[in-house]
């Protein structure tokens, strides 16, 4: 996630993060096929996550 810089994914244009206003609505990790590991259950804490 080296391209994720800044503290706010909605104002910093993070790759693979789609926002609806100031809320994260979609997390798309498919752009990085070498990504490995487990997705933490805390990802479900994003109240506005649609996908």
From TrEMBL:
Q: Mind telling me which InterPro entries this protein's record contains?
A: LRR_dom_sf
For this entry, the protein name equals: Leucine-rich repeat-containing N-terminal plant-type domain-containing protein
Organism the protein comes from: Taxus chinensis (Chinese yew)
Q: What is the lineage of its organism?
A: Eukaryota, Viridiplantae, Streptophyta, Embryophyta, Tracheophyta
